[in-house]
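Re: that chain you flagged

S.,

Sorry for the slow reply, it's been a week of failed gels. I finally had a moment to sit down with the sequence you sent. For the record, here it is as I used it:
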Amino acid sequence: MKQFLIFIGGFIAGILATLLFAFLVSDTKQPSDNLPGLTLFPEKGECITTQKEIKIFQVVKPNMALAESGKFPDEIMVLLINYDNKTYYDDQKIAIPSKNCARQIGTYQYTTKIGIEKTVPVVIIE
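Prediction finished late last night. Pasting the structure tokens below so you have them in one place:
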């Protein structure tokens, strides 16, 4: 009987430890960069747009969205990443402060719904 109680106690302790570990892992607030097709550079690149507004047109992850900067024919599409725990939504307009820019930090390759391969710069606003 004593061995059975030790076994049950160990079993319950194992379940509690597993649940605690799962909670701690899921509670981390850092965004995940593991997006298929995403390549981040070892060092930051140049500012790629002189426009002061970016318009979100498709959210890829809560902190990552495909966006447009500029107007036709000089329009450029980018993958905008936010590391400040802010989320994006479709048709959102992001103002770039006057002392900041959209700085390239990588590239993102994806296939459109109609099967066209695209590669766009990945940017952060800083």
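What I noticed first: Residues 2-26 form the longest helix (25 residues).

Talk soon,
D.
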